[in-house]
Structure formats: C-alpha cells, structure tokens
Specification:
UPF0260 protein GWK15_20325, Puta_zinc/iron-chelating_dom, 9 helices
Amino acid sequence: MTDPAPFWRAKTLDAMTRAEWESLCDGCGRCCLHKLRDEETDRLAYTNVACRLLDGETCRCKDYANRRKWVPDCVKLTPKRLEKIDWLPPTCAYRLVAEAQDLPWWHPLVSGRPETVHEAGISVRGRTVAERDAGDFEDHVVSWPGKWPAKARTPPVVTNRRRPG
C-alpha cells in the first residue's frame, strides 16, 4: 500500500483547508519586504526593508491576526489574489504549488523542521533593514529576494548516517 500524496500535491489551492493553506507559508519573510514598482515601466524591484511587523529573527509577523489593523495595505493571500500577484518570490510555496511544482527539500512541510528555511538561505534572517531606519527605500534595492540561493537548490549531503548491520 502506498502512502497518499501530501495535500499540496493532492489538492488545488482553493480546495485546501485554512490550516493547510496557512501551513504552506514557509516562514521566509520575503513577501514581507517592501517592493517598489516603476510607474513608467511597471518593473518590480525588491528591497531589504522589512515591514514594521516582521520579526527579523523568526521571520514571522509579530501580530499576524491583526496585521491589517497596523498595516492596512498588507495583502491577504488567497487563491484568487494569487493569480494576479507578480511579486511573490520564486521560492514561495504558494507560487510553486500554483505553478504545479513540488515543495523543495527545505520547506518545513517536507523537512519536518522550521529551521531548514533559514539553513538553506531562503529566509530574510539577518538581511533586513527596519522601516523606521531605512530612509529612502530606493537606497535599499536588492536582487536576492527574487532569486533561488544556490544552496537551496539541492538538499545537503548527510554524512553522519549509520551503516546498516
């Protein structure tokens, strides 16, 4: 008997329960970085400026349940909104599942450990500037949120496995 496919392979995004949907968030914090859009070219630029509610160590929202009260333009992701959003990083599980791709080895649903998102270099931990300290956001344009880190592409080699017998 084979194991059933994990929910992210077996269900569409709009068929997921709220708990399943929320668990897709890997806790990287990349979507909580401010983005700039050129009005003339519509070109998107990522910054390393974190939303005021982003905890730079955990890479999670400090007040997720009430985030729209404090940050009115915070986007609540839904399957419908996801179709129109072009700023999610390429590593985002919502984007990957919407594009019929599998979750990578470092995603906590795959690894079973929330720390792998940090170990793989996906998270924003240690790479952000607070809104209040940033000054002009244009001085903080960076490219890394829109890229896959090299070490995140392949799982690490485990060298401490015991030999059978």
